[in-house]
Amino acid sequence: MDQVHHRALDALQSFIALADSGSASSPRYAANIITNATSSPHTYVFAELLERPAIQALRSPDTPAELQGYLTLLEIFAWGTWQDYQNTPNLPPLSDEQTRKLRLLTLLSLSSTIKPLTYDSLMTALSLSAPSELESLVTAAIYSSLITARLSPATTPPTVNVTSVAPLRDVKPASLPSMISTLSAWESRCGSVISDIEAEIAKIRADSAQRRSKENARAVALDKTLEKWIAQSGEQGQGGSQGSQGGLGSKKMGWKPRDLGAAIRERGFFGGGSNKREFDDDGYFEEGPNDFDPHGSGMDIDEGAGARSGTRHSKRFLGKKT
User: Fold this and answer.
1) Taking the mean position of all CA atoms in its chain, how far away is CA 304?
2) Is the CB of residue 19 less than 8 Å from the CB of residue 54?
3) Beta carbons within 10 angstroms of residue 144's beta carbon
4) Is 230 exposed, middle or buried (0-12, 13-18, 19+ CB in 10 A)?
5) Enclosing H/E stretch for 183
6) Which of helix, strand or coil describes residue 301?
7) 35 within 8 A of 70, measured Cβ to Cβ
8) Residue 150, beta-bridge partner list
9) Closest by CA position to 320, among listed 298, 289, 292
10) What is the mean pLDDT of each run of 10 residues along the chain (322 residues)?
């Protein structure tokens, strides 16, 4: 649709050049420019031509009466409709090309304002007497890329379903204040919506920061509690096992909570420590040097395998051979 608008602007440039030439000082010459511009099959916008001094000179009281209506005719082609032409007196008669062009421009305006577009409403607005004439006009508009539409003559009532309209109508100067008012109101609403969105974003960020602060404080408190519990457990282990190499608290101060599971598996917190004696590579048990085995074999051997049941026999630890 934008390409159609550019083509219409390009088609108007030759008529603008004629209006800016020195020959356009004659009112009749300006009227001929208007007639040719409105009859051309490729011109659909006329605002730039309307602004030319030679065209505006037709408003002068010195303009002959039979030529004064050409400026009004050009304004109708720019932003008016077929009904405006029918209701305005003292306008020049239209050729077949101008009649078809004005009906096509009116179809553009009606397609943007009336929903649904029934055959009856369009035929009345365009002064058409038969559905075939309307269908021919709509088909021409579709092939000229003025509208995107589909004819539905079999529906009740028959309609023309328009999905898009080319931006080929000029803006009437009298409608500018209302358009500015509408755009200003829309801008105000957009500003209010943006302010609400920014306030909501700020609230979400504040809530997120507060939530992170609480989580960090909770994690710090948990770390301190676990470290204190580990230290207390180590002190209790020192009091119950004097021959050990030091309690958990004296060796593991400064542990992080992630080391708690490993500490529990290593030291056997639950159950008061391991129920099996530990020894080092030199053959000594952790309880002291009295259980040293000079053989250093690193094995536990039951003495008296055939002893009475119910009696626990002592074990002898065979150390490494030296």
Assistant:
1) 85
2) yes
3) 15
4) buried
5) helix 176-240
6) strand
7) yes
8) 161
9) 298
10) 80 93 86 95 93 92 91 95 95 96 95 90 95 96 93 94 91 80 88 92 93 92 90 73 45 48 51 45 45 46 45 46 44
Does this model's pTM top 0.70?
Answer: no
Give the pLDDT of residue 286.
45
Beta bridge partners, 152, equal 159
Strand partners for 147:
165
Query: Residue 300: beta bridge partners?
Result: 317
Q: Tell me the CA distances in angstroms from 175 to 31, 101, 165, 189, 273, one per residue in order.
A: 26, 23, 20, 22, 93
Handedness of CA 203, 209, 210, 215 (dihedral sign): positive
List of E strands, the chain: 117-118, 147-152, 159-165, 297-302, 315-319
Phi, psi of 281 (to 5 degrees): -70, -15
Both structure tokens of 168: 């080929």
From CA 34, how far away is CA 70, in angstroms rounded? 7
C-alpha atoms less than 13 angstroms from C-alpha of 255 in its C-beta half-sphere: 23
pLDDT at position 173? 82
**Residue 101: C-alpha distances to residues 67, 77, 141, 205 (Å):** 21, 8, 10, 59
